[in-house]
Specification:
Chain lengths: 163, 188
């Protein structure tokens, strides 16, 4: 053990050294007055610090801890039915609403004077007025969804991280 | 249940078993209370922080790493963080514990003792040591308390405080050197 290594003396003093290490340190101590002096210093400090003895906390502390813990609320258990018709009704309702909306829009634009010239184009010839309005609707819907997707995605991740 | 290990009891605490929680409390209340009391120097704060530590154990039980099974280290880490937060508040930010702030048991344990002088002398010694510890910086005080009073190994303290062992030992040497100067009149 190097003469000046006080860390080894600490390990020896607090019984944290492995047996061979401890034996080596004790051999060194036998012939080194400086290290023996340091061990005496550690012993002295140890007995000085021991003057401050442990105290007990108030006896009702645990009761107060328990009182500060809110009682466990029984969780409402949601039993999911094996088959649910609700999503099917929701989807059917949404589809009918969209189809009615498309029908309404196409009936309105077909009376516009501009429509007479547009009706000659090959797209409307191929799809019909209903198909054309449906295409515009879904195209617009796709555009909005793709535009908002990155914002929604990053916002959702950010909220998840905060939790 | 009394013979169960800390990790086994924690497993029960996760399932909200108050009996297991009480056993864990009984095992560690003295250590944690005295750790916080010596660290903050105030009995009322130690009482409150002991309560806060164990309340946090209850609510954060699910975050205890069952695989490591080191409940003692986990508990001390919670207590240390709570005590450090308390000490880092504004009122403590610019000075170490004032000597007058430290509360200590000034009264002899048994006033009717046959040797009241010895009791009084002991109270004085305790007072001197408490004041000397209070004059150390929080980091130095922390290592002395964890090493000497709590009897933790340097490796355990290093894991808890995320500090290299060498640094902790250097701090401990420095703390003892300062304490030696502060306790010089006692001639230990």
């Amino acid at each position: 053990m190097p003469h000046e290594n006080k860390d080894e003396l600490l390990r020896l003093f607090y019984h944290e050294a492995a047996p061979p290490e401890e034996q080596k340190a004790r051999q060194h101590l036998a012939g080194c007055e400086d290290c023996r002096e340091y061990m005496r210093f550690l012993t002295g400090m140890n007995s000085a610090l021991c003057q401050w003895q442990d105290e007990k906390p108030l006896p009702d502390t645990f009761d107060r801890i328990l009182a500060s813990i809110p009682p466990e609320q029984p969780r409402a258990i949601y039993v999911r039915p094996a088959i649910s018709a609700r999503p099917i009704f929701n989807i059917a309702f949404a589809m009918i609403s969209i189809l009615l909306l498309i029908y309404f829009v196409q009936s309105q634009i077909s009376v516009l004077p501009l429509w007479q010239s547009l009706a000659q184009s090959w797209v409307i010839q191929a799809l019909g007025s209903f198909g054309f309005v449906a295409l515009v609707f879904f195209g617009f819907g796709t555009f909005i969804t793709l535009s908002l997707a990155p914002i929604l995605y990053f916002d959702l991740n950010k909220r998840t991280l905060h939790i | 249940m009394e013979k169960s290990t800390d990790a086994e009891l924690m497993d029960m605490v996760i399932r909200k078993n108050t009996r297991a929680y009480k056993i864990l409390y009984a095992r560690y209340e003295l250590r944690i209370y005295n750790f916080i009391f010596r660290y903050t120097g105030k009995r009322e704060i130690a009482q409150d922080l002991l309560q806060e530590t164990f309340t946090r154990v209850w609510f954060a039980a699910h975050s205890f790493n069952q695989a490591s099974g080191n409940f003692k280290g986990w508990l001390y880490t919670i207590a240390l963080n709570i005590a450090r937060n308390e000490m880092s508040r504004k009122r403590y930010a610019y000075h170490y514990l004032e000597v007058s702030e430290i509360q200590y048991n000034n009264e002899p344990a048994n006033p009717r003792a046959e040797e009241p002088d010895i009791e009084l002398e002991h109270a004085d010694l305790q007072d001197t040591v408490a004041k000397a510890l209070g004059k150390l910086s929080p980091l130095l005080r922390e290592i002395v308390i964890l090493k000497h009073y709590q009897q933790l190994k340097f490796s355990e303290i290093a894991e808890m405080t995320q500090t290299p062992e060498g640094t902790l030992k250097a701090r401990f040497h420095r703390a003892l050197a300062q304490l030696k100067e502060l306790l010089e009149p006692l001639e230990f």
